[in-house]
Amino acid sequence: MIEFEEAARAATGFVLSTLDAVKTVLTQPEKVLSGLFQLVRLLVVCHLAGWGHQPSVKEMRALLQHIGTALVDGLRGRRSSGSARAR
What we know:
87 residues; mainly alpha
């Protein structure tokens, strides 16, 4: 019985998230298109960086630096909030 409830909950969550995604596509197409444009731009920059295009290499380095910093900050925040809960 518990497996059935979990399966039903998962199916319901899937349907609701799919409907939410469809709603976003229909009500905010500019955000969807902007996101797709940024994804294509990132792919082009990655490809050019792979070929040694210096502006693209610099942009990728800056992006990776930003991602690394955000990950470290997130892990530090999680550790400090986790240690606060343990007390």
